[in-house]
User: Fold this.
Amino acid sequence: MNEMPNNLTAVRNRGLGFIGGFMNAPNMRLKLAGGVGLIALIAIGIWLYGRYSHVYVQDSRLSSTMVSVSSRVAGWITDFPAQEGATLQKGDLMVEIDSRESKLMLAETEAALQGVRAEKAALTANRDQVDQRTRSQYDMAQSMVKEAQARLSATQSDLQLAQSDFKRIEALYKDKVISAQRWETERNRLKKAEQETERAAAAVETARTSLATVESARLELKVLDERLLMMDASEAKLTAQRDRQALDVEDRLIKSPINGVIDETFANPGEYVRPGQRLLMIHDPENIWVNANIKEGEIRFVKIGSHATVTVDAYPGEKFDGKVVRIGNAATSQFALLPNPNPSGNFTKIAQRLEVRIDVEQRDRMLKPGMMVEVAVDIPGR
Assistant:
């Protein structure tokens, strides 16, 4: 029983002796101190070089294209296939809203539109018939007017010649140069020319009357054209109503606007939703970036296209590559809801920050919006 304590005492004594001897050795102490100092210098050098060759931001978050999906129409939710965490492709159905009444209204509008189009087709056919019938009559009446006018011109020329001849013959008759029979013949010729001219003038008036009658008949075409214009307006109105109603039916099938993952849902099947009511949130997991707020004194070192290294608090030891794609054009303080105009004259200078967007390469969907990250942006030439 007494051997165990004696053994422990002997071990302790030997250990204390070893430590004491080591500490008393001058060379060993110097080597240890030198090694520690060298390690410290190397660490400080690495840290200083990192600060010299990179711009560091330690309080950034990951961002993504977050889409809040809302309803454009009112109605009851009949189906909600979208579940939180589900991966969707652009165009996949997420929510379905009751569309029975909307489809009936669309069918009613479509029927009214077909009726207007049928009436318009019948009116167009009637107009074509009137045009075809009256056009031939109009052409014939115009031809008759031209022919009657030409005949009237010819008879007027004959009348003028007969009048001139009779005037000459009458003078000779008074001078007893010609016989009474010759004078009688020329007088009869003049009367005949006058009668022909009167008949030709009457024929012109008759032809003009016929033309006016046909023109009156063609006025019906203007009435029909006006009705067709009204039908066009009715068709356009019903077409717009049909398209709007079709859009209402389409809006009741809410589909994914992007390729993404559903983050959260805010409604359930059977609920009544209103226009603008938020239904779910979705984001694109492949489109990830960091909005880093960099101090104005360091922004001159950041260039478009510069490489950046992103480390995520959730994955110690993991590094993700990034690239600067945008540098803000104004300090973040300019977008504050409560600006500080400093009317009192008291001033404390605070370093301003500018937002820099850094696109980050996704890896197995490890990166998620909102995660805290640290960013090191390479300084070109260093």
Q: What stands out?
A: The domain at 100-250 is CATH 1.10.287.620 (Helix Hairpins).
